[in-house]
Every structure is written in C-alpha cells, then in structure tokens.
C-alpha cells in the first residue's frame, strides 16, 4: 500500500499513515468528548481555551488552523512540531498581499520569535519580531492588523529586555499601547494583546527592581485573564504575580508558585512548569518534583534549544 507522511505525523509526531486510511480527521483529538467539535473549535480550545494540554491535536486545514496548532504545540513545549506548523503557514502566505494573509504571516513570525525567546535566544527573536512588525506596518487599522502589530511590539519589548535594553523595551510598549488605544471599543477583540502588554510591563519592572510596579501590572494581568477562557494566560499571569511577590514575601511567593507549578503539570504546560520550577527553586532553595533540570531536559527533547548563558 502506498504510504505518505500524514498531517497528524507533522503536527503530533504520531507516525506514518496510509493514504487509504480514514483520512486526516479520523481521530479529532485524544478525548472522546471532543469528537463533535469542529477542528477550529478544538484547536482554539487548546491554543487559547480551557484544554491547553489536549493531545493529539486536530488535523489543521486552513492557515488559521495551522497557526493555532503552532500556538497549541508551543504551549505544550512541542517546539519542533510547532515550528513545522509555522513552516506551513509561511509557505501558504508567501508572496500573498491580502490583509488576512499578511496577518498570519506576521503572527507566524512573532510566534516563532516567542519560541526562541522562551529558550533564551532574545537576539535571534528580535529579527523575527521585527519581520512580524514590518509585514503589517502601514497596512491599516483593522483589529486583526493591529493585533498582529501589537504581538510584534510586545515581542520586541521582551527581546529588548532580554538584551538589557530596558528603556527601549518601555518605548516599544508605549507604541503598543498607542496601537490598542486607536481601537477604542474593540478591546474585547484585543484581549490577548492587552494581557501581553501587562505581562511585559511586569517583566520590565522586575528587571528594573521595581517590585511595586511589577506587582501592579501582574495583578492587572491576573484580573484580565480571569475574564477569559485561556487557562494558559491565567497560569502565566499567576506566575508573574508570584515573581513580583518575591520582592515582598518570598515564602508566600514560593508557596503560590507551587500551586502554579501543579496547575502547569496537570494542564500539560511544560514550558510554564519549567519556568515555575525555576522560580520555586531560586526562591526556596529546594527542588521541585520533577526538578527544573528534568523539565528542561523534557523541553529539549521536544525541540527546545536552550541558549547557554555565559558568566
């Protein structure tokens, strides 16, 4: 029988499927209660909803679904598979000039940058974030274009933070806030961008040693995330609040970070589990179970290439 690499193999690494099989949608997800959902609904639930650890993922078809797959896989720490999904987005949007295609080309670049940044490659990430901003710059003020531009701007601000350029990071966040304010009345459609603005603001404040300001931004992110469905955004907001609390009550910060760690593990959010483990171990001096080294090794096994830090 003729065989080919299936969509499931590319996204989930699940093997080789014969073309005479039931097709790419034979198994929509790993849990029976998802079988009545559309592909987009399932992927949305994993990428920005209540089931971030769901696997295997639905087989994507549209450009949007391929991007959602990349986001979902990245949240699970499956970086190699996530990059493969972004490669599909890049191929399908290459040379196209419609606004919708440019939006996903930009989102692909900024998502790729986030994967680099999460493993310490802030300098490399800045190139992809810069490309993401250039793709949508000057194209208009639709919510979709503004959202993509804001993703790029917050990404660039985080890249600047990772390279010690805090003043530049704040200026980039000011530009992001200006973009959001231009769409007054559309904030509900930019919920993710507003939360990201608070995240990076908190991170910049932490890097500046201003724990009061960091806590204010982190608590605002927690409040905003609580009003939505994305468990991943709620967990990351909680983790940032824990980081800000280390400047006031390290014991409480470590205790709350332990709750975040448990949520990350139960929800399949490996990168955030690793980050919360690093925070707990740094504050308390006691290893988590599994410890940060084991979690980092798991990230590496899924395609996350950590940058070695020179002392």
TrEMBL record:
Highest taxon of the lineage: Bacteria
Protein name: MalT-like TPR region domain-containing protein
Species whose genome carries this gene: Nocardia globerula
């Amino acid at each position: 029988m003729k065989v080919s690499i299936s969509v499931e193999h590319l996204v989930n690494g699940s093997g080789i499927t014969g073309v005479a099989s039931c097709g790419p949608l034979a198994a929509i997800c790993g849990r029976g209660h998802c079988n009545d959902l559309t592909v987009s609904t399932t992927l949305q639930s994993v990428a920005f909803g209540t089931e971030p650890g769901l696997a295997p993922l639905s087989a994507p078809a549209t450009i949007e679904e391929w991007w959602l797959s990349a986001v979902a896989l990245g949240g699970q720490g499956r970086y190699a598979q996530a990059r493969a999904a972004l490669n599909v987005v890049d191929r399908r949007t290459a040379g196209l000039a419609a606004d919708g295609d440019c939006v996903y080309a930009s989102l692909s670049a900024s998502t790729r940058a986030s994967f680099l940044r999460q493993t310490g490659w802030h300098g490399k990430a800045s190139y992809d974030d810069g490309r993401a901003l250039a793709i949508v710059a000057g194209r208009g003020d639709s919510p979709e274009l503004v959202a993509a531009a804001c993703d790029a701007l917050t990404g660039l601000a985080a890249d600047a933070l990772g390279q010690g350029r805090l003043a530049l990071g704040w200026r980039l966040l000011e530009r992001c806030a200006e973009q959001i304010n231009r769409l007054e009345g559309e904030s509900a459609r930019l919920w993710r961008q507003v939360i990201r603005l608070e995240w990076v603001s908190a991170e910049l404040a932490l890097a500046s040693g201003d724990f009061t300001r960091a806590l204010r931004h982190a608590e605002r992110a927690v409040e905003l995330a609580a009003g939505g469905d994305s468990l991943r955004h709620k967990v990351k907001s909680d983790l940032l609040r824990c980081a800000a609390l280390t400047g006031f009550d390290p014991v409480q910060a470590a205790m709350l970070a332990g709750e975040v760690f448990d949520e990350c593990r139960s929800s399949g959010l490996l990168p955030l589990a690793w980050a919360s483990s690093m925070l707990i171990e740094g504050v308390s001096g006691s290893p988590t179970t599994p410890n940060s080294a084991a979690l980092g090794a798991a990230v590496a096994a899924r395609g996350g290439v950590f940058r070695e830090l020179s002392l």
